[in-house]
Amino acid sequence: MAKGSRQAAWEFFGQELRRRREDAGLTQAALGIRVFVSGSYIGQFEQAIRKPQLDVAQRFDELLQSDGIFERMWHSLIDDHRYADYFAEVVELERLATRICEFAPTVVPGLLQTVAYAQAITIAANPFVTDAYVEEKVTARRERARILADATRPEYWVTLHENVLRVPAGGSAAMAGQLEHIAALMRARTVWVTVVPYAAGAHAAMGSMLQLMEFDDAPPIAYTETSFSGTLIDDPAVVKRTHRAYDLLRVAALSPEASLALIESAAEDYRRCASTT
After folding, report:
1. Which of 56, 78, 100 is the last residue of a domain?
2. Which residue range forms the structural domain that includes residue 58?
3. pLDDT at residue 25 above 70?
């Protein structure tokens, strides 16, 4: 579905929600209380500023007796087979975010991945899939990255653990190209990248990635992910804790200048290794 038609469909979702809410004699605040979100969230859903999570769409159906229409619309708009079920909504939110902050403990974030790197990690996780499957996944990842080329692109802050630089996914040439790509984006001031070095020791997000998203007209959201599952977090208290964890990671990281030097040095090492093999 094209971006414009998808937005129009979300606007229809909001209009239908408003119509059914008013038919039920409920204010935005009253509906929010019953589905466990704030009244302002209901207003943002109705204006298609923000998209509800699946459990909220299901509660709309139950409370407004809408025979599953909101769940069906949610699946048709959010459920993209190119992404894991738990990640499809994150892709939609990235397009709306004004600021994205991300911590990557082991793998280059999808928005920064080159084709060769994305192919390598996709095949490593799915060794028996077809080339068409790999191409579909890689293409979807590259499409996500287009938000960084938009004139209205979000501020993108990335904190990498040194692990990300040292695991040669796809071999030396692929890693050299991947790190050179990150360095080029840093030098172009498209992204802000820092690295938590091994010397920093234990850190505030051991074992899991973390993504924070901020919006013009909606509260911030956090997303965490392990190898086979992910969780969107919109509880204000928990989101605040994730922001604190990210602040601690930034304190543990090298300066932007030192981070760039480390990334470029690692890229040179990989490039040298690739040229001798």
Report:
1. 78
2. 3-78
3. yes
Domain-ending residue, one of 78, 112, 141: 78
CB 147 within 8 A of CB 156: no
pTM over 0.85: no
Residue 263: CATH number of its domain: 3.30.870
Using DSSP's 3-state secondary structure scheme, residue 76 falls into: helix
Q: Which residues of 79-98 are buried (b: 16+ CB within 10 A; e: fewer)?
A: eeeebeeebbbbbebbebbe
Specify the range with the lowest mean pLDDT, choosing from 89-93, 211-215, 267-271. Answer: 89-93
Residues 214 and 140 in one domain: yes
Of 205, 202, 201, whose CA–CA distance to 223 is shortest? Answer: 205
Q: Is the pLDDT of residue 118 over 90?
A: yes
Element (H, E) at 133: helix 131-144
- Asked if 255 and 194 count as a contact pair (C-beta separation under 8 A), the reply is yes
- Max CA distance (Å), the chain: 73
Integer angstrom CA distances of residue 70 from 74, 246, 256: 6, 34, 45
Instruction: Verify that 133 and 214 share a domain, yes or no.
Output: yes
